[in-house]
Design brief:
Layout: H1 2-5, H2 12-29, E1 33-39, H3 46-52, E2 60-66, E3 72-74, E4 93-94, H4 99-109, E5 114-118, H5 126-133, E6 138-141, H6 143-149, H7 155-178, H8 185-198, E7 205-212, E8 234-242, E9 248-251, E10 254-255, H9 262-281, H10 288-295, H11 297-300, E11 305-308, E12 311-313, E13 320-323, E14 337-340, E15 343-345, E16 352-353, E17 357-361, E18 366-368
Parallel strand pairs: 1-5, 3-4, 5-6
Antiparallel strand pairs: 1-2, 2-3, 7-8, 8-9, 8-10, 11-15, 12-13, 12-14, 14-17, 15-16, 17-18
């Protein structure tokens, strides 16, 4: 059983690579120490798992990395028996009553002055941050620097990424294949969730829908309801998962049983052009901003409104930096993984289109990892 559970456990060479990249970023920023935060909040547990192998089942955890000493995993004492701590590949582990106070005391004893924290924007437990903020530390938001250090995925990571994509594709296909008028939105989502759970995704799924009427989609992303579906509806199951290896991917396609209305058909043309351009411009050496500007041109040329950024780096955390968008001059490295999912709408905000594809940044262009055409489905299809 241990061998099976650990089949995606990183090799020592991979662990060493991760720490070498992280410590190089720390040294460049002049940090005395770095705290990596992780939380059960969906999609934000991955940084801790990336740095120590522990998959957070409940609550939160930290990896504390001194500049001149071995890393320490810090878990809340009340969660001692919550999660498989044997999966942790860091030798030193602490289970204090108050993680923030323990870390503050540890850092004070090591005379740390400049402290980086990954997780200040979304993740870190407020009680723990308060204890650290009360210490005599210069606290640096290390969100971008840490994500940039792990943007290039190794060959080992790519195996996990591709495994996740196969699971994601199967879930989407199961929804499409099992569509029937009269089934509820939630009933179809349940089919995808059963597929994901059976494949070992556990709770690492982030699923939502867009719905519309008469062959269209409204802009809002919502939870699936008990509303029975009709053939005249438009429906989009936005399915994002990570498999056993912990690498997130995003893949979905729209379901339009009676076809799209005229406005949505034109939007689909823009979507097709977007993804053609992504295969050209998501290449090593291009910047995130330049790639976004090139890919979004068919959308902005048609005077559509953009709902949010067209894409982002993705890895063991669902949303990593950089965003593929304005203001990010990060140079894309080969084997970076990005989710590309423009969300746009007409000026009246009555029609929208949004679905996901995950790309590998290649030497000469972007590789769409699903291999599935950019198209809408009518329901009942048994393959892509």
């Amino acid at each position: 059983m241990t061998d099976y559970i650990n089949r995606f456990r990183p090799s020592q060479a991979e662990i060493d690579r991760r720490y070498a990249n992280t410590r190089a970023a720390m040294q460049k920023a002049g940090l005395d120490a770095l705290i990596i935060s992780g939380s059960e909040y969906t999609g934000f547990e991955g940084a801790v798992r990336y740095m120590c192998g522990f998959h957070i089942l409940h609550r939160y955890a930290y990896v504390l990395i001194p500049a001149d000493a071995d890393p320490v995993c810090v878990f809340p004492r009340e969660a001692t028996w919550v999660g498989d701590h044997s999966a942790t590949f860091i030798e030193k582990r602490e289970f204090p009553d108050h993680c923030g106070k323990w870390m503050a005391d540890y850092l004070k004893n090591r005379k740390v002055k400049k402290l980086g924290i990954y997780g200040l924007e979304y993740i870190i437990n407020v009680r723990d941050y308060s204890a650290l903020a009360a210490g005599d530390f210069e606290i640096i938001d290390f969100e971008v620097e840490f994500d940039y250090s792990r943007a290039c995925k190794s060959d080992e990571e790519l195996v996990s990424v591709r495994h996740s994509m196969e699971i994601n594709k199967q879930g989407v296909l199961d929804v499409i294949r099992n569509y029937q008028s009269g089934k509820t939105e939630a009933e179809l989502m349940g089919i995808a969730e059963r597929t994901f759970a059976a494949a070992g995704c556990a709770r690492n799924t982030m699923n939502m829908i867009q719905r519309g009427f008469n062959g269209s989609l409204e802009p809002q992303m919502v939870f699936p309801s008990q509303r029975p579906l009709q053939d005249s509806d438009g429906i989009l199951y936005g399915l994002e998962i990570s498999g056993e290896g912990g690498h997130w991917v995003e893949f979905s396609r729209p379901l339009m049983p009676e076809g799209m209305d005229e406005i949505t058909r034109e939007m689909m043309t823009a979507y097709e052009e977007f993804h053609e351009l992504a295969q050209q411009h998501m290449k090593a050496g291009n910047t995130a901003e330049a790639a976004a500007n090139a890919c979004m041109k068919p959308i902005f040329d048609r005077n559509y409104r953009s709902g949010h950024v067209c894409g982002h780096s993705i890895g063991m955390t669902m949303i990593e930096m950089p965003r593929i968008g304005e203001g990010f001059d990060f140079v894309l490295p080969e084997n970076m993984i990005c989710s590309m999912h423009p969300h746009f709408m007409n000026q009246e905000r009555t029609h929208s289109l949004y679905f996901q594809e995950t790309y590998r940044v290649g030497k000469d262009g972007g590789e769409p990892l699903s291999g599935v055409p950019i198209k809408a489905y009518t329901g009942g299809e048994s393959s892509f």
